[in-house]
Amino acid sequence: MVAGRLKRVAAVAANTFRETVRERVLYNLVFFAILMTLSGLLLGELSIRQDEKIIKNLGLASMDIFGTLIAVFIGVGLVSKEIERRSLYPLLAKPLSREEFLLGKFVGLGFTLLVNVGVMTVGLYLTLVATGRGIDWSLLKAIYAILLSLLLTVALALLFSTMTSSTLAAVFTVCTVVAGRFSDVVRNMRDVSQAVPEWLVRLVYLVVPNFLNFDIKDHVIYGDPIGGGLLARLTIYAASYAFVVLGLAMLRFRSRDLT
Amino acid sequence: MSGLPHPVPVETSHLTKAFPAGFLGRRRVAALNDLSLEVRPGEAFGYLGPNGSGKTTTLKILMGLVSPDSGAARILGKPIADPSWRHRVGYLPEHPYFYDYLSPAEYLDYVGRLFGLPASVRRERSQRLIGLVGLERSSHVPMRRFSKGMSQRVGLAQALMNEPELVILDEPMSGLDPIGRRLVRDIILDLKAQGRTILFSTHILPDAETLCDRVGLLRSGRLLKVGRLDEILTQDARVEVLLSGGDAAVFASPALGVRSSQQIGERRRLEVEEKSLMPVLQAATASGARILSVTHVRESLEDYFFRQMGESAPDSSWLPGD
User: Fold this and answer.
1) pLDDT digits (tens, 9 = 90+) for B61-99
2) A8 touches chain B (CB under 8 A)
């Protein structure tokens, strides 16, 4: 029973991975990410004694930005496009539950992002080695945090994808991610404008995941100690949030008429 | 297949479904109204009706894609919410679309994995089914290059991947050329010969007439009639009379019982109720016409359907023989 479920989730995940690696948008984004990483070389030449930090900063930032773009723009189409094109209909008539389908989609795109971040990580280390800098393994801590935030973004994209069209899902996901990345601004919103109701500020701050928590790039680059406890807390935070968001997506998707 | 399936393959009881319409979906448009239907083991059941009559909605409810507002349905004796029947049923949706980045062989392998089939069985079945639907030369071509008819063939192959007891096909002839239609007809007849149950919706009445043991006629979400074709179609027997010469005005009298009168070149074709045959022949002879032939014509399903639809002109969405 459980083995059957896992096999079906794995089948959907494998197909989703195949689908995403055949998407042209993925290659465009990876190309720009590599370009941005390599531009660190040029900027590094222009800066005095800051070249290594710039290379690391640009490398991690490109992983973060382009990973988020991939998570949003491929993620929002994972379910809504299947409904719009009706490719989902024959699959759901098979022994595949809607929950297994959603989970498979999440795992599939998550794996694509893992591979993508892995390729960019290799690119960043090669850039550092090629320019005579040593390998800084602490960068992996920041990369791990980026990967967690990307998985959470995929879960949000999937939730919106089960509710509406891919265009509206993209708008909602981008808004949520932006609000989460500026959660400090959201929290202090009333300092800027009293017109915004306090309950609204509190609601947005509490509901939207705090993506700032995952941004430990500067700490790693400037050599601040990052303990295992912080990474564990980030993992629990991302896993709990993703669990709730995917649960909501499953609830919504279960009751949706596929007309 | 070993032995006939015993449980009732498809059973619906008072199914009702309405969809939201209009601004903010406040209005509800009825798609199905109190639909009770039974498909018997081993039969080919044709589900007929014009566009918007509720055929696809019924099949989607059976497949769990749409929830009914009220009523219940059972597949192979199990409630539709029970997933255990899904291993034993094949389904082809209307206007199917498959992942265009996959080839038919890759897609069938994916479908086989969802059924939990081992790799060797998946390989053997996908090769056999690709051959059955005539796509051997395109088995490794990405489906983005496929015509509508080729996608329809892939759709039929995926519906048979689990060797189902019950096959549910939504407009299986849609988008097919005459060769494709013949192929699908042969496959359905072959499935029937193997003792499998087939429920299919169609617009194409001649195909339904060739394939179905029984039909259900649906209009505006209501089931008008269910029955065997021979039961339905002999209820209104007609006679065709071919004449030459004579006075055409004679046949215009409604009292004579001539249903239609057409001039075809030198000849005139009359369609006459069986009970009115003798008066019509006498009137024709009296007007100087020569009777060329008198043929008993069984009503076609198409004629029957239009009569059931209220003797009105065919719905613009109705495509007999399409």
Assistant:
1) 999 999 999 999 999 999 999 989 999 999 999 988 889
2) yes
Distance CA B30, CA B3 (A): 40
Q: Is B102 left (phi over 0), alpha (psi -120 to 50) or beta?
A: beta
Closest to B28 (Cα-Cα) out of B38, B36, B37, B18: B18
* Under 8 Å between Cβ of B146 and B133: no
Chain A residues inside the 8 Å CB shell of B96: 86, 89-90
Nearest-Cα distance to chain A for B242, in Å, is 50
Nearest CA to B59 out of B75, B83, B44, B77 is that of B75
Interval A8-66: pLDDT, tens: 999 999 999 998 888 776 777 777 777 777 776 777 666 666 677 888 888 899 889 98
Total-model pTM:
0.83
Chain A residue closest in CA terms to B167: A93
Contact check, Cβ <8 Å, A90/B86:
no
Among A89, A98, A99, A164, the strongest candidate for a mutation testing the B interface, having the largest count of B CBs within 10 A, is A89
Asked if B21 reaches chain A (Cβ–Cβ under 8 Å), the answer is no
CB atoms inside a 10 Å sphere around CB B231: 11
Distance in angstroms (rounded) separating the CA atoms of residues B119 and B112: 8
Question: Quick one: how far is CA A105 from the chain centroid?
Answer: 14
Tell me how many residue pairs between chain A and chain B have CB atoms under 8 A apart: 78
pLDDT digits (tens, 9 = 90+) for B236-287: 567 889 999 888 888 887 778 788 888 888 899 988 888 888 989 998 898 8
C-alpha–C-alpha distance, residues B122 and B243, integer Å: 62
